[in-house]
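Two records follow; treat each independently.
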Amino acid sequence: MTYHLPKLPYEFNSLEPYIDIRTMTVHYKMHHAAYVDKLNKALEAYPDLQSKSVYELLYELERIPEEIRLAVRNNGGGHANHSFFWPSLSPKGNGEPSGQLAELINTAFGSLDGFKAQFTQAALGLFGSGWAWLCVDADEKASITTTPNQDNPLSGDLFPLLGLDLWEHAYYLNYENRRVDYVTAWWNIVNWNNVGGNYLSFKAQAKVDEVSGKVKGFLNKVKGG
């Protein structure tokens, strides 16, 4: 497998005014593309690893040869996180979760507003560059977490349903240092259908392997993968 940029599900200007066309273009064509190129370079001598999805690489990061582990962690993480991020946005956002996703959020956080408040607090509390996530564990318990840099929750046995890019390149051209304005605007373009689909895929596909304790069968089903 040669990793490649996924096609965006919308035009570069489709998310305006919340994310401007210049930010989208630079973010996708320069930042995400660089992660893909560097990941392919790191795996050139490892054809067995090239057959795995990038999510599988991150989920079993400890099995990656030490000499390329950091490159896979950083660039594989950058590719996975962005591939996951783009479909979670939609020009037709600003709706609400429904069905089983709504039940999950209400059970874990009391209400959608309660979830948004806790997620926003986590996003604004992250020091430096990284991501904020809504995740589930192997027992389908929901939680909010943050990761530094391009780390992905999969490396910690958590399964992402929704992620927010908090690197400055995701918002600085428009919002400058006003992360709070970026996070507030982002809620208007969350694609809840995509998030709900991620949760349903997890429920349908994820099985815990009794020997390894690892969840199998989900990683190739993540939307955006």
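The next record belongs to a different protein.
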Amino acid sequence: MIRCYRRWPLPDALLASPAIDPGPPITMLMIKERLLSAGLAYQRLTGLSFPRRFPIVQFPNLPLTIALLADAAGRFLADGAHSYTASVSYLALTVWAYEELARGVNWFRRLLGLAFVMYLIVRVARALPA
């Protein structure tokens, strides 16, 4: 049995058949090209905003996506694991709020970042023991 470049082995009889071509091997260059195109597609998605001249609503960037996913995962986990996902969610939300505060595209986005920074400070202060 000969291994081909796919995930499963093909029998020798199928490899000898001219009807089935295993195709060219996946090279590192092809992998890099696919990752680059995926990165560009994600960058195009995060660039979407509404309205165009004064963006108020935008596609979630990476820190906000991580925060939302960690929060959603925390809802299905028990106490110990829930605290870890909550920590990841708060950290990612803090990074997102700081980025909006420091590098927001307009005054509304900067104000939104400031509001979330203050919200996170209050949430963490309430969670600390007195």
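Discussion point: The CA atoms of residues 10 and 16 lie 10 Å apart. How would you locate this feature using only the token line?
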